[in-house]
Write a structure and sequence with these properties.
globular, mainly beta, ten-stranded antiparallel sheet, 6 helices, Beta-galactosidase, Chain A, domain 5, single chain
Length: about 550
Protein backbone atom coordinates (compact mmCIF):
# COMPACT_ATOMS: atom_id res chain seq x y z
CA UNK A 1 0.00 0.00 0.00
CA UNK A 2 1.43 3.36 -0.94
CA UNK A 3 2.36 6.13 1.48
CA UNK A 4 -0.44 8.74 1.38
CA UNK A 5 1.80 11.74 2.10
CA UNK A 6 4.11 10.93 -0.77
CA UNK A 7 1.14 10.26 -3.03
CA UNK A 8 -0.40 13.64 -2.31
CA UNK A 9 2.81 15.40 -3.29
CA UNK A 10 3.10 13.37 -6.49
CA UNK A 11 -0.49 14.03 -7.54
CA UNK A 12 -0.12 17.74 -6.82
CA UNK A 13 2.92 17.86 -9.13
CA UNK A 14 1.09 16.13 -11.93
CA UNK A 15 1.88 12.46 -11.50
CA UNK A 16 -0.42 9.47 -11.54
CA UNK A 17 0.57 6.36 -9.63
CA UNK A 18 -1.79 3.55 -10.67
CA UNK A 19 -2.31 0.80 -8.15
CA UNK A 20 0.54 -1.70 -8.50
CA UNK A 21 2.19 0.24 -11.33
CA UNK A 22 5.13 2.54 -11.89
CA UNK A 23 4.40 6.30 -11.75
CA UNK A 24 3.74 8.00 -15.07
CA UNK A 25 3.43 11.60 -16.24
CA UNK A 26 -0.06 12.67 -17.25
CA UNK A 27 -0.41 16.40 -16.52
CA UNK A 28 2.05 19.18 -15.79
CA UNK A 29 0.28 21.70 -13.59
CA UNK A 30 3.33 23.84 -12.91
CA UNK A 31 6.34 25.08 -14.83
CA UNK A 32 8.58 22.40 -13.35
CA UNK A 33 10.32 20.15 -15.88
CA UNK A 34 9.91 16.42 -16.13
CA UNK A 35 13.52 16.19 -15.06
CA UNK A 36 12.65 18.05 -11.85
CA UNK A 37 9.75 15.68 -11.30
CA UNK A 38 12.08 12.74 -11.71
CA UNK A 39 14.23 14.17 -8.94
CA UNK A 40 11.14 14.55 -6.75
CA UNK A 41 10.16 10.97 -7.46
CA UNK A 42 13.59 9.77 -6.38
CA UNK A 43 13.17 11.64 -3.09
CA UNK A 44 9.74 10.21 -2.26
CA UNK A 45 10.31 6.68 -3.57
CA UNK A 46 11.47 5.44 -0.15
CA UNK A 47 8.30 6.87 1.36
CA UNK A 48 6.21 4.95 -1.13
CA UNK A 49 7.89 1.71 -0.14
CA UNK A 50 7.67 2.38 3.60
CA UNK A 51 3.89 2.57 3.85
CA UNK A 52 2.25 0.28 6.38
CA UNK A 53 -0.42 -2.14 5.09
CA UNK A 54 -3.93 -1.22 6.15
CA UNK A 55 -3.22 2.44 6.85
CA UNK A 56 -6.69 3.20 5.44
CA UNK A 57 -5.60 6.35 3.63
CA UNK A 58 -5.66 5.31 0.03
CA UNK A 59 -8.92 4.55 -1.83
CA UNK A 60 -10.32 1.16 -0.92
CA UNK A 61 -10.91 -1.41 -3.63
CA UNK A 62 -13.51 -4.16 -3.23
CA UNK A 63 -12.65 -7.81 -3.89
CA UNK A 64 -15.31 -7.75 -6.62
CA UNK A 65 -16.74 -4.57 -8.23
CA UNK A 66 -20.37 -5.29 -7.28
CA UNK A 67 -22.70 -4.98 -4.30
CA UNK A 68 -21.25 -8.03 -2.57
CA UNK A 69 -17.76 -6.56 -2.89
CA UNK A 70 -18.82 -3.20 -1.40
CA UNK A 71 -20.62 -5.03 1.41
CA UNK A 72 -17.37 -6.86 2.14
CA UNK A 73 -15.59 -3.51 2.54
CA UNK A 74 -18.35 -2.20 4.82
CA UNK A 75 -18.07 -5.31 6.97
CA UNK A 76 -14.32 -4.75 7.26
CA UNK A 77 -14.79 -1.10 8.23
CA UNK A 78 -17.32 -2.01 10.91
CA UNK A 79 -14.94 -4.55 12.43
CA UNK A 80 -12.51 -1.82 13.51
CA UNK A 81 -12.91 1.46 15.41
CA UNK A 82 -14.32 4.37 13.47
CA UNK A 83 -11.83 6.82 11.98
CA UNK A 84 -12.98 9.84 10.02
CA UNK A 85 -11.66 9.31 6.49
CA UNK A 86 -11.60 13.04 5.74
CA UNK A 87 -8.21 14.73 5.74
CA UNK A 88 -7.60 18.35 6.61
CA UNK A 89 -7.64 20.61 3.58
CA UNK A 90 -5.27 23.49 3.03
CA UNK A 91 -6.25 26.78 4.61
CA UNK A 92 -6.83 28.28 1.15
CA UNK A 93 -9.52 25.70 0.40
CA UNK A 94 -11.01 25.78 3.90
CA UNK A 95 -11.48 29.56 3.68
CA UNK A 96 -13.40 29.53 0.40
CA UNK A 97 -16.72 31.35 0.76
CA UNK A 98 -19.99 30.23 -0.79
CA UNK A 99 -19.66 32.85 -3.55
CA UNK A 100 -16.08 31.83 -4.29
CA UNK A 101 -17.10 28.19 -4.60
CA UNK A 102 -19.86 29.14 -7.00
CA UNK A 103 -17.26 30.85 -9.19
CA UNK A 104 -15.35 27.58 -9.60
CA UNK A 105 -17.08 25.76 -12.44
CA UNK A 106 -16.59 22.29 -13.80
CA UNK A 107 -15.08 22.28 -17.28
CA UNK A 108 -17.76 20.56 -19.38
CA UNK A 109 -15.09 19.46 -21.85
CA UNK A 110 -13.71 17.21 -19.10
CA UNK A 111 -17.01 15.44 -18.37
CA UNK A 112 -16.44 11.74 -17.82
CA UNK A 113 -17.62 9.70 -20.85
CA UNK A 114 -18.03 12.85 -22.95
CA UNK A 115 -15.52 11.70 -25.55
CA UNK A 116 -17.25 8.32 -25.80
CA UNK A 117 -20.58 10.14 -26.36
CA UNK A 118 -22.34 7.92 -23.83
CA UNK A 119 -25.89 8.81 -22.73
CA UNK A 120 -24.72 9.30 -19.12
CA UNK A 121 -21.91 11.69 -18.20
CA UNK A 122 -20.38 12.66 -14.86
CA UNK A 123 -19.27 16.04 -13.53
CA UNK A 124 -17.50 16.66 -10.21
CA UNK A 125 -17.75 19.15 -7.34
CA UNK A 126 -14.76 21.15 -6.15
CA UNK A 127 -13.79 20.80 -2.46
CA UNK A 128 -13.49 23.58 0.09
CA UNK A 129 -15.49 25.95 2.26
CA UNK A 130 -18.78 24.48 3.42
CA UNK A 131 -18.25 21.35 1.32
CA UNK A 132 -16.90 19.12 4.06
CA UNK A 133 -17.27 15.78 2.31
CA UNK A 134 -14.41 14.00 0.55
CA UNK A 135 -15.07 11.09 -1.78
CA UNK A 136 -12.95 8.72 -3.81
CA UNK A 137 -14.41 8.11 -7.27
CA UNK A 138 -13.82 4.88 -9.20
CA UNK A 139 -15.00 3.83 -12.67
CA UNK A 140 -15.86 0.24 -13.55
CA UNK A 141 -15.42 -1.01 -17.11
CA UNK A 142 -15.97 -4.74 -17.21
CA UNK A 143 -13.52 -6.23 -14.72
CA UNK A 144 -11.27 -3.16 -14.77
CA UNK A 145 -11.56 -0.61 -11.95
CA UNK A 146 -9.77 2.72 -12.28
CA UNK A 147 -9.64 5.61 -9.81
CA UNK A 148 -10.31 9.21 -10.85
CA UNK A 149 -7.78 11.27 -8.86
CA UNK A 150 -8.50 14.88 -8.00
CA UNK A 151 -7.01 17.41 -10.41
CA UNK A 152 -7.64 21.13 -10.76
CA UNK A 153 -7.56 20.54 -14.50
CA UNK A 154 -11.21 19.45 -14.17
CA UNK A 155 -12.26 22.95 -13.14
CA UNK A 156 -12.44 26.51 -14.46
CA UNK A 157 -11.36 29.13 -11.94
CA UNK A 158 -12.27 32.81 -11.83
CA UNK A 159 -9.64 35.20 -13.18
CA UNK A 160 -8.92 36.51 -9.68
CA UNK A 161 -8.46 33.04 -8.15
CA UNK A 162 -4.90 32.46 -7.00
CA UNK A 163 -4.06 28.84 -6.19
CA UNK A 164 -0.71 27.08 -6.05
CA UNK A 165 -0.09 23.36 -6.01
CA UNK A 166 0.33 23.11 -2.19
CA UNK A 167 -3.25 24.40 -1.86
CA UNK A 168 -4.50 21.09 -3.27
CA UNK A 169 -2.65 18.78 -0.92
CA UNK A 170 -5.09 16.16 0.32
CA UNK A 171 -7.87 17.46 -1.94
CA UNK A 172 -10.61 15.11 -3.05
CA UNK A 173 -13.88 15.66 -4.85
CA UNK A 174 -16.82 16.88 -2.76
CA UNK A 175 -19.44 14.99 -4.78
CA UNK A 176 -20.67 14.50 -8.33
CA UNK A 177 -23.62 15.00 -10.63
CA UNK A 178 -24.99 12.73 -13.35
CA UNK A 179 -26.13 14.14 -16.71
CA UNK A 180 -28.56 12.52 -19.14
CA UNK A 181 -30.71 13.69 -22.14
CA UNK A 182 -33.72 13.97 -19.84
CA UNK A 183 -35.84 16.54 -21.69
CA UNK A 184 -34.34 16.69 -25.20
CA UNK A 185 -32.44 13.96 -27.07
CA UNK A 186 -29.62 16.33 -28.03
CA UNK A 187 -29.17 18.11 -24.68
CA UNK A 188 -27.79 16.78 -21.41
CA UNK A 189 -29.55 17.73 -18.16
CA UNK A 190 -28.74 16.99 -14.55
CA UNK A 191 -30.74 13.99 -13.40
CA UNK A 192 -29.22 13.22 -9.98
CA UNK A 193 -26.64 14.74 -7.61
CA UNK A 194 -24.70 13.05 -4.79
CA UNK A 195 -23.30 15.66 -2.41
CA UNK A 196 -23.12 15.92 1.37
CA UNK A 197 -23.14 13.04 3.91
CA UNK A 198 -25.36 10.36 2.31
CA UNK A 199 -27.68 12.85 0.59
CA UNK A 200 -28.78 12.74 -3.03
CA UNK A 201 -31.57 14.30 -5.05
CA UNK A 202 -33.04 13.48 -8.42
CA UNK A 203 -35.38 15.11 -10.89
CA UNK A 204 -37.82 13.78 -13.52
CA UNK A 205 -38.35 15.25 -16.97
CA UNK A 206 -39.96 18.69 -17.04
CA UNK A 207 -39.40 19.51 -13.37
CA UNK A 208 -36.68 21.20 -11.29
CA UNK A 209 -34.79 20.14 -8.19
CA UNK A 210 -36.68 20.26 -4.89
CA UNK A 211 -36.63 17.80 -2.03
CA UNK A 212 -33.77 15.37 -1.40
CA UNK A 213 -33.23 11.85 -0.08
CA UNK A 214 -30.45 10.14 1.81
CA UNK A 215 -29.44 6.59 2.55
CA UNK A 216 -29.78 6.58 6.32
CA UNK A 217 -30.76 8.71 9.33
CA UNK A 218 -29.26 7.93 12.76
CA UNK A 219 -30.83 9.34 15.93
CA UNK A 220 -32.87 11.85 13.91
CA UNK A 221 -35.31 13.76 16.12
CA UNK A 222 -34.16 11.98 19.27
CA UNK A 223 -32.39 13.21 22.41
CA UNK A 224 -28.73 13.95 21.74
CA UNK A 225 -26.97 14.83 18.53
CA UNK A 226 -27.96 13.35 15.19
CA UNK A 227 -25.30 11.25 13.48
CA UNK A 228 -24.71 11.68 9.74
CA UNK A 229 -23.14 8.71 7.93
CA UNK A 230 -21.00 9.94 5.04
CA UNK A 231 -20.15 8.42 1.70
CA UNK A 232 -16.41 7.96 1.35
CA UNK A 233 -16.07 5.90 -1.85
CA UNK A 234 -18.12 5.47 -5.01
CA UNK A 235 -17.87 2.96 -7.86
CA UNK A 236 -19.77 3.78 -11.06
CA UNK A 237 -20.31 1.27 -13.84
CA UNK A 238 -19.73 2.41 -17.39
CA UNK A 239 -23.13 2.49 -19.16
CA UNK A 240 -23.84 1.05 -22.60
CA UNK A 241 -24.05 3.43 -25.53
CA UNK A 242 -27.79 2.80 -25.72
CA UNK A 243 -28.14 2.39 -21.96
CA UNK A 244 -31.09 3.86 -20.10
CA UNK A 245 -29.88 2.84 -16.64
CA UNK A 246 -26.84 3.85 -14.58
CA UNK A 247 -25.58 1.58 -11.82
CA UNK A 248 -23.35 2.68 -8.98
CA UNK A 249 -22.31 1.67 -5.47
CA UNK A 250 -21.31 3.70 -2.44
CA UNK A 251 -19.45 2.92 0.79
CA UNK A 252 -20.42 5.01 3.83
CA UNK A 253 -19.24 5.19 7.41
CA UNK A 254 -19.99 6.83 10.77
CA UNK A 255 -19.24 6.35 14.44
CA UNK A 256 -22.04 3.80 14.96
CA UNK A 257 -21.97 1.81 11.75
CA UNK A 258 -20.61 1.26 8.26
CA UNK A 259 -22.68 0.44 5.22
CA UNK A 260 -22.94 -0.23 1.51
CA UNK A 261 -25.51 1.14 -0.92
CA UNK A 262 -26.42 0.17 -4.47
CA UNK A 263 -28.26 2.54 -6.82
CA UNK A 264 -29.98 1.78 -10.12
CA UNK A 265 -30.86 5.14 -11.69
CA UNK A 266 -33.55 5.14 -14.38
CA UNK A 267 -34.23 8.67 -15.72
CA UNK A 268 -37.50 9.59 -17.42
CA UNK A 269 -40.89 11.28 -16.96
CA UNK A 270 -40.74 9.51 -13.60
CA UNK A 271 -37.13 9.10 -12.53
CA UNK A 272 -36.59 6.01 -10.41
CA UNK A 273 -33.75 5.31 -7.98
CA UNK A 274 -33.75 1.65 -6.97
CA UNK A 275 -31.78 1.28 -3.77
CA UNK A 276 -30.32 -1.55 -1.71
CA UNK A 277 -28.70 -0.75 1.63
CA UNK A 278 -26.65 -3.04 3.87
CA UNK A 279 -25.85 -1.90 7.43
CA UNK A 280 -23.08 -3.18 9.70
CA UNK A 281 -23.40 -1.69 13.22
CA UNK A 282 -20.37 -1.34 15.50
CA UNK A 283 -22.61 -0.63 18.49
CA UNK A 284 -26.31 -0.90 19.18
CA UNK A 285 -28.27 1.74 17.25
CA UNK A 286 -31.65 2.22 19.00
CA UNK A 287 -33.17 4.66 16.51
CA UNK A 288 -32.46 4.84 12.81
CA UNK A 289 -34.38 5.85 9.70
CA UNK A 290 -34.62 4.03 6.38
CA UNK A 291 -35.14 5.98 3.12
CA UNK A 292 -35.22 9.45 4.73
CA UNK A 293 -36.68 12.29 2.68
CA UNK A 294 -35.93 15.95 3.42
CA UNK A 295 -37.96 18.91 2.17
CA UNK A 296 -38.91 22.52 2.88
CA UNK A 297 -42.22 23.93 4.09
CA UNK A 298 -42.35 27.58 5.06
CA UNK A 299 -46.07 28.39 4.83
CA UNK A 300 -49.18 27.46 2.86
CA UNK A 301 -52.97 27.41 2.89
CA UNK A 302 -53.30 25.78 6.29
CA UNK A 303 -50.58 27.78 8.09
CA UNK A 304 -51.54 29.74 11.19
CA UNK A 305 -48.04 31.25 11.29
CA UNK A 306 -47.79 33.86 8.54
CA UNK A 307 -44.89 35.94 7.26
CA UNK A 308 -44.71 39.37 5.68
CA UNK A 309 -44.48 37.97 2.14
CA UNK A 310 -45.93 38.79 -1.26
CA UNK A 311 -46.21 35.10 -2.14
CA UNK A 312 -49.30 33.15 -1.02
CA UNK A 313 -47.40 29.86 -0.47
CA UNK A 314 -43.76 28.77 -0.23
CA UNK A 315 -42.92 25.05 -0.01
CA UNK A 316 -41.20 22.18 -1.82
CA UNK A 317 -43.75 19.69 -0.48
CA UNK A 318 -47.17 20.24 1.06
CA UNK A 319 -48.01 16.86 2.57
CA UNK A 320 -46.96 13.41 3.75
CA UNK A 321 -48.68 10.51 2.00
CA UNK A 322 -48.70 7.03 3.56
CA UNK A 323 -50.01 3.75 2.19
CA UNK A 324 -50.32 1.54 5.26
CA UNK A 325 -49.88 -2.21 5.41
CA UNK A 326 -53.61 -2.57 6.22
CA UNK A 327 -54.61 -0.81 2.99
CA UNK A 328 -55.52 2.59 4.45
CA UNK A 329 -54.23 5.76 2.75
CA UNK A 330 -53.29 8.70 4.94
CA UNK A 331 -52.68 12.34 4.04
CA UNK A 332 -50.99 14.65 6.55
CA UNK A 333 -50.70 18.33 5.45
CA UNK A 334 -47.35 19.80 6.49
CA UNK A 335 -47.01 22.89 8.67
CA UNK A 336 -44.42 25.23 10.17
CA UNK A 337 -45.86 26.11 13.56
CA UNK A 338 -42.70 27.61 15.08
CA UNK A 339 -42.26 24.56 17.34
CA UNK A 340 -40.58 21.23 16.75
CA UNK A 341 -43.20 18.55 16.11
CA UNK A 342 -42.62 14.81 15.78
CA UNK A 343 -45.38 12.49 14.58
CA UNK A 344 -45.28 8.68 14.38
CA UNK A 345 -47.62 6.62 12.22
CA UNK A 346 -47.35 3.05 13.55
CA UNK A 347 -47.53 0.39 10.87
CA UNK A 348 -46.33 -3.01 9.70
CA UNK A 349 -45.00 -3.73 6.22
CA UNK A 350 -46.06 -0.36 4.75
CA UNK A 351 -47.01 -0.07 1.09
CA UNK A 352 -45.07 3.16 0.87
CA UNK A 353 -44.71 6.74 1.98
CA UNK A 354 -43.62 10.01 0.43
CA UNK A 355 -43.39 13.78 0.62
CA UNK A 356 -45.73 15.12 -2.04
CA UNK A 357 -46.16 18.47 -3.78
CA UNK A 358 -49.86 18.48 -4.74
CA UNK A 359 -50.39 22.16 -5.44
CA UNK A 360 -49.39 22.64 -9.11
CA UNK A 361 -51.09 25.97 -9.84
CA UNK A 362 -48.45 28.71 -10.40
CA UNK A 363 -50.94 31.31 -9.16
CA UNK A 364 -50.71 29.77 -5.68
CA UNK A 365 -46.99 30.62 -5.49
CA UNK A 366 -46.54 33.76 -7.61
CA UNK A 367 -42.83 33.01 -7.94
CA UNK A 368 -41.39 33.13 -11.45
CA UNK A 369 -37.91 32.05 -10.34
CA UNK A 370 -38.30 29.38 -7.64
CA UNK A 371 -41.14 27.71 -9.59
CA UNK A 372 -42.45 25.72 -6.65
CA UNK A 373 -45.20 24.31 -8.86
CA UNK A 374 -42.44 22.37 -10.70
CA UNK A 375 -40.87 20.75 -7.63
CA UNK A 376 -41.05 16.93 -7.71
CA UNK A 377 -42.71 14.60 -5.26
CA UNK A 378 -40.82 11.55 -3.96
CA UNK A 379 -42.50 8.23 -3.18
CA UNK A 380 -40.72 5.40 -1.34
CA UNK A 381 -41.92 1.92 -2.32
CA UNK A 382 -40.46 -0.84 -0.10
CA UNK A 383 -39.28 -4.15 -1.58
CA UNK A 384 -40.11 -7.12 0.58
CA UNK A 385 -41.41 -6.94 4.13
CA UNK A 386 -40.01 -4.27 6.45
CA UNK A 387 -41.77 -5.60 9.56
CA UNK A 388 -43.09 -3.49 12.41
CA UNK A 389 -42.21 0.16 12.89
CA UNK A 390 -43.53 3.59 12.04
CA UNK A 391 -43.33 6.34 9.48
CA UNK A 392 -41.91 9.30 11.39
CA UNK A 393 -42.43 12.93 10.44
CA UNK A 394 -40.35 15.80 11.81
CA UNK A 395 -41.56 19.38 11.31
CA UNK A 396 -38.77 21.75 12.34
CA UNK A 397 -39.47 25.47 12.91
CA UNK A 398 -38.05 27.75 10.25
CA UNK A 399 -38.10 31.50 9.59
CA UNK A 400 -36.96 31.28 5.96
CA UNK A 401 -37.21 29.15 2.86
CA UNK A 402 -33.51 28.37 2.52
CA UNK A 403 -33.19 25.26 4.69
CA UNK A 404 -34.94 21.91 4.74
CA UNK A 405 -37.15 21.67 7.82
CA UNK A 406 -39.21 18.58 6.99
CA UNK A 407 -37.95 15.01 7.41
CA UNK A 408 -39.85 11.74 6.88
CA UNK A 409 -38.50 8.18 7.14
CA UNK A 410 -39.32 4.60 8.11
CA UNK A 411 -38.27 3.82 11.69
CA UNK A 412 -38.02 0.07 12.43
CA UNK A 413 -39.41 -1.01 15.80
CA UNK A 414 -36.35 -3.04 16.80
CA UNK A 415 -32.89 -1.50 17.20
CA UNK A 416 -29.82 -2.49 15.22
CA UNK A 417 -27.77 -4.84 17.40
CA UNK A 418 -24.00 -4.54 17.40
CA UNK A 419 -22.44 -7.01 14.99
CA UNK A 420 -25.80 -8.01 13.43
CA UNK A 421 -26.14 -6.74 9.84
CA UNK A 422 -29.42 -5.58 8.32
CA UNK A 423 -30.45 -5.04 4.73
CA UNK A 424 -33.27 -3.06 3.10
CA UNK A 425 -34.39 -2.57 -0.50
CA UNK A 426 -36.75 0.02 -1.94
CA UNK A 427 -37.45 2.32 -4.87
CA UNK A 428 -37.74 6.10 -4.71
CA UNK A 429 -39.95 7.43 -7.50
CA UNK A 430 -39.41 11.11 -8.33
CA UNK A 431 -42.41 12.49 -10.19
CA UNK A 432 -44.86 15.33 -10.69
CA UNK A 433 -48.54 14.43 -10.40
CA UNK A 434 -49.08 10.94 -9.01
CA UNK A 435 -52.71 10.14 -9.91
CA UNK A 436 -52.55 6.62 -8.47
CA UNK A 437 -51.38 7.84 -5.05
CA UNK A 438 -53.82 7.21 -3.63
CA UNK A 439 -56.10 5.13 -5.89
CA UNK A 440 -59.01 6.91 -4.17
CA UNK A 441 -60.30 10.42 -3.73
CA UNK A 442 -57.97 12.85 -2.04
CA UNK A 443 -57.92 15.92 0.18
CA UNK A 444 -57.43 18.79 -2.25
CA UNK A 445 -57.02 21.67 0.21
CA UNK A 446 -56.86 22.37 3.94
CA UNK A 447 -57.73 25.79 5.32
CA UNK A 448 -58.22 26.96 8.89
CA UNK A 449 -58.96 30.16 10.78
CA UNK A 450 -59.67 31.55 14.22
CA UNK A 451 -63.14 31.53 15.75
CA UNK A 452 -63.97 34.98 17.14
CA UNK A 453 -63.79 35.17 20.93
CA UNK A 454 -62.70 31.56 21.40
CA UNK A 455 -58.93 31.28 21.80
CA UNK A 456 -58.80 27.47 21.92
CA UNK A 457 -61.29 26.87 19.09
CA UNK A 458 -60.49 26.78 15.39
CA UNK A 459 -62.48 26.52 12.17
CA UNK A 460 -61.38 24.01 9.50
CA UNK A 461 -62.53 23.86 5.89
CA UNK A 462 -61.52 20.87 3.74
CA UNK A 463 -62.06 20.15 0.06
CA UNK A 464 -62.14 16.53 -1.13
CA UNK A 465 -61.99 15.40 -4.73
CA UNK A 466 -63.44 12.02 -5.77
CA UNK A 467 -63.88 10.05 -9.00
CA UNK A 468 -67.39 10.69 -10.30
CA UNK A 469 -67.99 13.72 -8.07
CA UNK A 470 -67.94 16.25 -10.90
CA UNK A 471 -70.49 14.25 -12.91
CA UNK A 472 -72.89 13.68 -10.00
CA UNK A 473 -72.49 17.06 -8.27
CA UNK A 474 -74.65 17.43 -5.17
CA UNK A 475 -76.20 14.01 -5.89
CA UNK A 476 -72.87 12.44 -4.90
CA UNK A 477 -74.03 12.84 -1.27
CA UNK A 478 -71.26 11.01 0.65
CA UNK A 479 -71.16 10.11 4.32
CA UNK A 480 -68.66 12.40 6.08
CA UNK A 481 -66.63 10.85 8.90
CA UNK A 482 -64.82 13.31 11.20
CA UNK A 483 -63.15 12.67 14.56
CA UNK A 484 -61.03 14.61 17.05
CA UNK A 485 -58.74 13.19 19.73
CA UNK A 486 -58.47 15.58 22.72
CA UNK A 487 -60.97 17.97 21.15
CA UNK A 488 -64.72 18.61 20.69
CA UNK A 489 -66.35 19.06 17.28
CA UNK A 490 -69.22 21.46 16.52
CA UNK A 491 -70.89 23.38 13.67
CA UNK A 492 -70.27 20.57 11.16
CA UNK A 493 -71.44 21.02 7.56
CA UNK A 494 -70.73 19.53 4.15
CA UNK A 495 -71.86 20.36 0.62
CA UNK A 496 -70.89 20.23 -3.03
CA UNK A 497 -68.47 23.00 -4.08
CA UNK A 498 -69.67 23.74 -7.62
CA UNK A 499 -66.82 26.16 -8.35
CA UNK A 500 -63.99 23.70 -7.74
CA UNK A 501 -66.00 20.49 -8.20
CA UNK A 502 -65.06 19.24 -4.75
CA UNK A 503 -66.95 18.13 -1.65
CA UNK A 504 -66.46 20.76 1.06
CA UNK A 505 -66.39 19.72 4.71
CA UNK A 506 -66.32 22.33 7.51
CA UNK A 507 -66.29 22.10 11.29
CA UNK A 508 -65.12 23.83 14.48
CA UNK A 509 -62.88 22.07 16.98
CA UNK A 510 -62.33 23.14 20.59
CA UNK A 511 -59.23 21.80 22.34
CA UNK A 512 -59.73 20.00 25.65
CA UNK A 513 -58.36 21.66 28.76
CA UNK A 514 -54.70 20.86 29.37
CA UNK A 515 -54.00 19.43 25.92
CA UNK A 516 -51.36 20.91 23.63
CA UNK A 517 -52.24 18.88 20.52
CA UNK A 518 -55.50 17.83 18.88
CA UNK A 519 -55.40 14.98 16.36
CA UNK A 520 -58.03 15.31 13.65
CA UNK A 521 -59.17 12.77 11.05
CA UNK A 522 -61.68 13.03 8.21
CA UNK A 523 -62.71 10.99 5.16
CA UNK A 524 -65.67 10.39 2.86
CA UNK A 525 -67.60 7.14 2.58
CA UNK A 526 -70.05 6.12 -0.09
CA UNK A 527 -71.99 2.98 -0.94
CA UNK A 528 -70.62 1.15 2.08
CA UNK A 529 -66.92 1.83 1.49
CA UNK A 530 -64.30 4.50 1.91
CA UNK A 531 -63.99 6.64 -1.23
CA UNK A 532 -61.20 9.00 -0.14
CA UNK A 533 -57.92 8.87 1.69
CA UNK A 534 -58.00 9.73 5.39
CA UNK A 535 -57.06 13.33 6.07
CA UNK A 536 -55.17 13.54 9.35
CA UNK A 537 -54.01 16.76 11.00
CA UNK A 538 -52.25 17.78 14.19
CA UNK A 539 -53.53 21.11 15.52
CA UNK A 540 -51.47 22.72 18.27
CA UNK A 541 -53.64 25.43 19.88
Amino acid sequence: MRNPIALRYLCAWGLRVPFGSEPEFFLLESDVSKRGLAVLLAIVAPLLAAAEPGDGREPLQPPTPDFNGIKSLARQLASRPFEDHRQELSRRLRDLTYDQLQQIGFDERKSIWRRERLPFQLQLFHPGGSREDQINLNLIDGEQVSAVPFSRDFFIYADNASFSWPDFRGAKFAGFRVLYPLNKPNKLDEVIVFQGASYYRAVPAGLVYGLSARVLAVNCGEAGAEEFPRFRDFWIERPDREGRTLKLWGLFDSASLAGAAEFMIVPGPETATRVRVALYPRVEVPRYGIAPLSSMYWFGKNSQRRFDEVRPEVHDSDGLQIGTGTGEWLWRPLDNTGKLRTSSFIDKNPRGFGLIQRERDPACYQDLHAQYQRRPSAWVHPSGEWGAGSVRLLEIPSDAEFSDNIVAFWSPLLPLKAGQPAEFAYEVLWSGDMPDLPPLGRAIATRSGAVSGQARTRRFTLDFGCPGLEQLGSAFNPEVVVSAAHGRLSNRSDEYNQYQHTWRVAFDVAADEGTDAVELRACLRREGGVCTETWTYCWTP
